[in-house]
Amino acid sequence: MNREVFYIAGFDPRSPKYYYSIFKSNIIKTSRIEQDYLNLNKLENAEIPNFIIDYKGCKTRYNFLAWNDIVIEHFYKKFFDVFAALIVSFIGYTISSVTYMIAKYSRTQLIAGYYPLLFILFSYFMIILICYILGSIMGITLLWGLVAILIFYLGTKAIFYIGQKAGIFWLLSIYKFCYRYAQQRVNGIDKRNEFFANAIINSIKNNQNNNTEIMVVAHSVGTILAISSVAKVIKKCKLEGLDISNLKLVLIGGCVPLTSFQKCGDKFKKELEIVANSDITWLDFSSKIDGACFFMLDYVKRSGVQAKRSPKLISVRFFKIYDKKTYKHIRYKWYEVHFLYLKATQISGGYDYFYMIADPSRLEDKVF
User: Fold this and answer.
1) CA–CA distance from 100 to each of 96, 103, 107, 122 (Å)?
2) SS3 (DSSP) at 330
3) Helix 107-138 and helix 142-165: axis angle, to 10°?
4) Integer CA distances (angstroms), 246 to 58, 208, 210, 318, in order
5) pLDDT in tens, 225-277
6) 10, 78, 310, 339: which one has the fewest Cβ atoms less than 10 Å from its Cβ?
């Protein structure tokens, strides 16, 4: 049994080297992998960075389909960029019907969506209130003006420090990016998706005469790119008469509706339709305590896509794969939970990323 995995990370400026380090450190801790049978190669810095996993006679080539360079361009940290992102997000989600759709099907996403806006507005309201109170005490003088400027400056510094540490600007960047993606206004993304698709197609061609499993695995915002790339794969393979029965799609902690719910997202909806009308194995993992994903939501049906089926939705119950102490510690840390899908489990039997990737049994035969 051989397998080839193509991994697409989420909206993260960190490189494949970082994700390799997470994989390497966690696979040797996780509950469902027997370490005596495991061998892990070093990361090869090729055009498509990759490494080999050898486990119980199954060789898996793990490929990183990187797009962190594009993320860096859309990761907002500067003062005016953040406020521009706020305006775009307000137009793209609040004014449109997207907020209504999100509120209807995912309250946690609604809270996450308004979290950056409310945090920034409340913070500046408090700064203005403090300046107003000082003005009442000191009077509107030159000294008050200098103090007010200093408070505004230090307050802004504090807002940006907290915003970056708490992942608030990360969320804001994601919302703007997903809206731009629906509008087809992300420079270089079509070319990157084409590159991803061609890499997957080359693997399919090279493995037409064997039983190699080809898995496209995507996390978070990467799930949106995965839909677009796999749609291209399906279209091209159909034209070339290639067998795609060994092609599998796995989406983890995804946020597809941020793009598929947009009225301007017709192109993406067509891509979603192509995938949904194919016969490939398609799993979608999400968790109720992950505030950055859409939990168990049939986004194919809710996006109005004409399709014969939807992905198999699987709930990741973290309370069943971690001990009580660990679960209590991470339960309300939504940023950590969103990346927990990629980390070691403590209790065997439920979801395990490394079992899914490395175990010799085929994806459709695995139990989560």
Assistant:
1) 8, 5, 10, 23
2) helix
3) 160
4) 15, 9, 10, 29
5) 999 999 999 999 999 999 999 999 999 999 999 999 998 999 999 999 999 99
6) 78
